[in-house]
Amino acid sequence: MNAMEVNIHYFRLINDLGKQYPMWNPVFYVIAEYMVYGLALAVFLYWFRRTSENRMMVICGTVTFFLAELFGKVAGSLHYNQQPSAELTDVNQLVQKAVNNSFPSDHTILFFSFCMSFWLFKKRSGIFWMLLALCMGISRIWVGVHYPADVIVGALISIGSALAVYLVVPRLPIVHTLLGFYEKAEQALFPAKQKSRDL
Length: 199
Hints:
InterPro entries: PAP2/HPO, PAP2/HPO_sf, UPP_Pase
Domain Phosphatidic acid phosphatase type 2/haloperoxidase: 58-166
Strand content: under 5%
Number of domains: 1
Pfam family, one: PAP2
Protein name: Undecaprenyl-diphosphatase
Helix content: over 70%
Transmembrane segments: 27-48, 126-145, 151-169
Structural class: mainly alpha
């Protein structure tokens, strides 16, 4: 089999599960379409817990996402394929999506950018986030909008970008300077509650 035939073969293996086990379709639909809001909430909560580690983690996740999206656009300019539902017949399509280049998966890039960053900073809880990112990638195949290669390449781009950002960004003085300015302004506008000390 050539690369495209392998891609289609594994797409069918995953996507056909929705026909064999239709009770799981709502679960994967919710993950594919709405879990992004859960990720956004997690980023918000991590940031406003006001710890240096959490804030650097969110900064790294954000930089990783923009960097990975840039690499994703380059990859998309080198290879083109439409959504499986536009190219194949008898697809278990649970999500309606405009026909365009589905390579690589933007949802996968977003999730792996932040979830890999979470794992690099917080190994124990980061395992949960990496599993969630994996579920997101599988869900995009399950609902019929991406091939496995779209997801795999998106994940690899994000993982590589996250590693590079983790090694560079926390060591940049300008990042700490800008974060310091922000935190001073935040403290002035919204003073953090100080814990009372026992006398």
